[in-house]
Structure to design on (238 residues):
């Protein structure tokens, strides 16, 4: 068995990653496959925490949210992330993974409130911790929540799972000449506006020297290869 490059990771999953080929909602086959990938990493002895987005659910109600107060719309998005967290927890239960959902909003009948010490203890016990409701504050993205939670739980790296297998010099769909960066510095990513994560999340990670890896969750075995330190995706380093 190969030795993981990281002891504790924070996996940032977008809500869109759960849609599969559907236009919105949760695709059962897709979420099951993602959970299988997470299980492979947990079986290596890596401690895994997850921050989940809500775009797949909120997209379905987005037309109704047009013209809505921004804070209200953001709270709706946070509730969508809690729904995704529960779906992820259920899928993990089916493959024998023990997980806990912690919410930044108090919904105690549904999920535990976020408590840093508890989250770290769960990770040390080998449980997957799923963070829902972002930071609990409007005007902050789930990217920022991933950076914040990654720092709070002392993660070794933030893994951003996307639809693209890394960060490119240009849009690879429009420009076949676009090249994938193997590594980047935070300053390069910010100056070149490479859309690794939002600016707040990038700055937080840079200031705390918390590396980021961007990879495609749709590539079979990609998560495991990143955790093993192989050439997968793009690493953003201090």
């Amino acid at each position: 068995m190969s030795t993981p490059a990281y002891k504790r990771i924070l996996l940032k999953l977008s809500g869109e990653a759960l849609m599969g080929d559907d236009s919105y909602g949760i695709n059962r086959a897709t979420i099951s496959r993602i959970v299988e990938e997470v299980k492979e990493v947990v079986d290596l002895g890596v401690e895994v925490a997850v921050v989940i987005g809500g775009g797949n659910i909120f997209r379905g109600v987005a037309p109704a949210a047009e013209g809505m107060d921004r804070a209200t719309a953001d709270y709706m998005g946070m509730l969508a992330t809690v729904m995704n967290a529960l779906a992820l927890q259920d899928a993990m239960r089916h493959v024998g993974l023990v997980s806990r959902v912690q919410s930044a909003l108090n919904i105690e009948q549904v999920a535990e409130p976020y408590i840093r010490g508890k989250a770290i203890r769960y990770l040390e016990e080998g449980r997957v911790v799923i963070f829902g409701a972002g930071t609990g504050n409007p005007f902050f993205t789930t990217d920022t929540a991933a950076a914040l939670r990654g720092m709070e739980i002392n993660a070794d790296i933030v893994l951003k799972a996307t639809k693209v297998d890394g960060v490119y010099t240009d849009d690879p769909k429009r420009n076949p000449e676009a090249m994938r960066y193997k590594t980047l510095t935070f300053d390069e990513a910010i100056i070149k506006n490479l859309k690794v994560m939002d600016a707040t999340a990038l700055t937080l990670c840079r200031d705390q020297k918390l590396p980021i890896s961007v990879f495609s969750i749709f590539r079979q075995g990609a998560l495991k290869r990143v955790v093993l330190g192989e050439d997968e995706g793009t690493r953003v380093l201090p």
Observations:
- The mean pLDDT is 93.
- Strands lie at 8-13, 47-52, 99-103, 112-113, 128-132, 157-162, 183-185, 212-216, 234-237.
- DSSP finds eight helices and nine strands in the chain.
